[in-house]
Description:
The complex is a heterodimer. By secondary structure, chain A is an alpha+beta fold.
Amino acid sequence: MNKEKLSRAMSYLDEDLIAQAHEEGVPEAHAARMRRIRLVTRVAGLAACLCLFVGLTFSAVLSRWSVDGTPNEDDVQVRTGAVQPSAFSLGPGTKSVGPYLTFSAVRPGVMTAEFTLQETVSPTVHLYVISPESGKSMPASDEWFDVVITDETGKTVTTTALTAGHYTITVDYTRLLAQGYTMDDYAEFSPLGICRMPENN
Amino acid sequence: MEDSAIVELFLARDEAAIAHSEVKYHRYLEQIAYNILYNRQDAEECVNDTWIRAWGAIPPHRPTCLGAFLGKIVRNLALDRYKAEHTEKRGGGEFTLSLDELAEVLPDAEQELREEELGAAISAFLRTQKPLASKIFVCRYFYAESIADIGERFGFSESKIKSILFRVRNRLKEYLEKEGIEV
């Protein structure tokens, strides 16, 4: 075909055909519907990718935070979540390598441990964190984490005077994580001694 | 302003017709010229020439679709400019010269008529096609829009547009052969 002649001939198309193609030619409803379909498809694809990513990440986090609950070798007489009366012989603020609590991760930034007291104590909690600046372990200010202790009925109790009984301690240090800190592998739950954090937290 | 009112201004030899046309169609015409020339300045000059041509053509012509009428003018101006620039860039090569020589043998009016006849035949063919296919064809071969732009406009993928154009071209070729029109 003679391209130039064809090209010229196109200028002699009927004007209504030209006008329809450009002005009315856009089947807006159809185009809009197709655009919506493509948008939904893209969003669904992105959502699927996001779900996969979140799922994998969550799975990785869970596995990273999993605690097997095996008693430490220094803790042969103490099952996880329980504290022997001997632990109480440690005075407030005294550090020890054991026996100790082992915390379980509820989710990143929140962990729990159970323990049994056989006499009244007034414990204090110190978390040790790795400074993002120095990379060194340091005690975190208690304003950056929350400690809640509940008794067997689930009622929150004060830490100033814990009587004998079974308790659950929950430590929420989400704000510390948000500040860029990572948890050291232990906390001090005086007078109960050193409290092991979940591994690699 | 409505097209019919602008046309009335043209017919009344009122220069406001050009001002109103410019407001309504400048961008549309510039895009047609730009699609052919790929040069904003050249496209702008074609649009400016379009007003002069339209002023000379109306009256006696009384367009029913003013936008399409102006679009045809600017398209022809752009094709002229494209051809001229293309010739210059090729340094007026032998092939171009021979074509020009051959063109001189044919009377302009006759050549014009043949292109007009061909345009009418294509119009008749397009009326036998589905409206969507017809519109896509015109967007591509009259407006010289890109495949991507047409796809966006009609909400189809580029491959679908290419496929539609391919089928319409084949049908056009068959139609022209059947009508005994040689191009």
